[in-house]
Amino acid sequence: MPPHAIPKGILLINKPKGKTSFSLVAALRRKLHVQKIGHAGTLDPFATGVMVLLIGKEYTRLSDRFLGQDKEYSATIHLGIQTDSYDCDGQTLATSDKQPDLAAIEQALTHFQGTIEQVPPMFSAKKVQGKRLYELARKGKTVERQPVKVTVQTKLISYHYPFLKIDVVCSKGTYIRSLAHDLGLMLGCGGHLCELERTRSGPFTIEECIDGTAVCRCELDVIPYLKSYEGIQNP
Rounded to 5 degrees, what are φ and ψ at 228? Predict the structure, then answer.
């Protein structure tokens, strides 16, 4: 990149566990002195994996194009414990000693294939009547949410009670936390999402990503890792 040129392009980052998605954006703004930085989907603090950062207004205006692409996840579900947020950051609501066998797991996963209806979790950024659901949830309120159609393909990776590991390919708007919660209910024991790694976002894979820890600390020169999008004319 020529001296004094304003950085622009696509930056693929492996978000570290315990960091917010917005901390990556903030770190990049400080390092690159660029305010216009978008993304193709955030990750919860406990989650890791592919984050597609869009640097510069020429790329941030294309965020909808990237947001609409499918994503792939490696998810670990902790069976027997149900939480209010459907994940490991929530408060425990119920526990169960029931231990589903492998046949029950395989049968339940058949219901999470293709187009399904999914109710957004209360702890989400989705708006209902102008209010973000997580704002209501933090006040102890629960409101009715309309189910949303999403497309998923789930595959069993391993099962060693209480931990069930699956691979999920899904469309835009899918909540893996809700999938974990719904699967736990179907199995009759409850469950929550305890680990999540996004392994792919659209065409971009985890193998292409740079270390997000170094990015958060501003220790890495990210300029050489900026990519252009070949499918866009004059971005």
Answer: -95, 160
